[in-house]
Predict the structure.
Amino acid sequence: MNNKITIGGAQFGLNYGIGNSTSKLSRQDIRMIFDRALEVGVDSIDTAINYKKSELIIGENHKNNFKIITKLPRIPNNINDSNEWVNSHIMASFKRLNVKKIYAVLLHNPLDLLSNKNLYNSLILLKKNNLVEKIGISIYSPLELEKLIGEFSLDLIQSPLNIIDRRLEESGWLDKLFDLKIEVHTRSCFLQGLLLMKKNKRPRYFNKWSTIFERWDDWLLDTKCNPISACLALPILSNKINRTIIGTDNIHQFNEIIIACKNLHGINLPNLSSSDTSLVNPSLWDIQ
């Protein structure tokens, strides 16, 4: 099961996650996480150009032992030559990552494919030139797929999915992507750490969804299930999800995740599903 885990690289360059109390990962923790990952069969890392120094830190530590996925930022409206724009970003990315090719490149803003008609061909060229194995998009909502799948041939879709945000499943898109043989990577397994927080630590912003969180707290209490295991069970046990991206604040938490992966079978998750974007999309959270 560990080969379904992808290390999330956002914490390498950003203060990421509502439950993050340690800010960016230390260089020592990163080295220990990489070493531990290889020991247990975790062989991929997800990052992005927008994650500040994340690519640079990965390049200093990966030793060509990992499949790397990175993401291109939003393409500016005034770009006429998408080939030059894509290649300049990719070459700079490769230099930071200390690689000659990577597993996949995704678009951070999928709708760029519609606004810049040459962008897709520029991505295809990366594959033809053997610089990337796969191309794809990172989505925030399955609604984005309605506009893109069918018009563009994509290899990989990255999407949020967790026990509250089950839109990818409930929309039918997880089944469709599986049938189309498109690789699916999910993220936000812990909803940026919110699902691992104690009741008294959750910001007041989430009180409006108290029914959902009371059901979650009660279920954890009744079943005595480790919340990490419960969150991991949904993406890791699904045969329609290829990988799930897991962010971690330190080596101790990474080890907890690896241990939790051994105890996933037999978990019957409660129904906590919500399509309220104010809850499931962390970029919309208004936390003071």
